[in-house]
Amino acid sequence: SKAKLFDEKTDTRTSFKDVAGLEGAKEEIEEIVEFLKNPDKYTSLGGKIPKGALLVGPPGTGKTLLAKAVAGEAKVPFFSLSGSDFVEMFVGVGASRVRDLFKQAKDKSPAIIFIDEIDAIGRARGKSNFTGSNDERENTLNQLLTEMDGFGTNTNVIVLAATNRADVLDKALMRAGRFDRQIYVDLPDIRERKEIFEVHLRPIKTAETLDLDFLAKQTPGFSGADIANVCNEAALIAARKEKKAVNKQDFLDAVDRIVGGLEKKNKIIT
Ligand code: ATP
């Protein structure tokens, strides 16, 4: 079977409105939207548009969402692949996959390339837990570095990459002209959790005016992905009981269920 290499999504549906909280990260990444929209304005005095930015933060905090929103706001195509695909699917062909990806993005530029879990290919040499051969991972990494260095000045392809382990990345990736900007995407605080609930309650039929401050208070340590999950579970729980709308108790039951899941996950890790 032929694995799908990456998704090119030219749809512009994801916008900054879909990303709750993360004010600092949004502000920083907004600059990249500006570069993509008006490259000539920024290069007119001899400056070079940055080639890449690294989104750093725990799982489920909205890194992928933010990258998609950049493409959506700038109305440019979004090409993505995941570092783990190289471990699972592209054994032996990593470098050529990277080359193909950049070629496609350049053909459609301005464009965004998004590399999720970049640590799977970008670990510092000698610190690999890549299941393929280490030489192969290094070839893939070297190809990525080559592509980033080889951009013409007017290519206008910006590479966003995500990781929750910036500390293990090869320093070569962070050198000037590569991923020289780092944007932190943290777990939401109570106020941000409330905003994330607002976003994910939009499609949900609720029975009463829910107290979002209360829900935010009930979910310390939850990521945006966990909160999206709570909203969805609550809707399913209520539907299973053949209710016409979702109420507060359904949300509390959903929170319990997600907490249970998180505890199990942590048990496996420790
Ligand atoms: P991972 O490191 O696991 O890939 P990630 O940081 O890329 O995670 P996303 O894939 O962007 O996380 O988030 C998963 C889903 O969680 C999103 O599609 C969205 O539904 C929800 N979500 C996460 N963060 C936010 C946020 N700040 N605002 C709104 N929704 C969010």
From TrEMBL:
Location of the AAA+ ATPase domain: 49-189
Compartment list: Cell membrane
Subunit structure: Homohexamer.
Function recorded in the entry: Acts as a processive, ATP-dependent zinc metallopeptidase for both cytoplasmic and membrane proteins. Plays a role in the quality control of integral membrane proteins.
Encoding gene (name): ftsH
Record's protein name: ATP-dependent zinc metalloprotease FtsH
Highest taxon of source: Bacteria
Binding site for ATP: 57-64
UniProt similarity note: In the central section; belongs to the AAA ATPase family. Belongs to the AAA ATPase family.
Signal sequence extent: none
Organism: Croceitalea marina
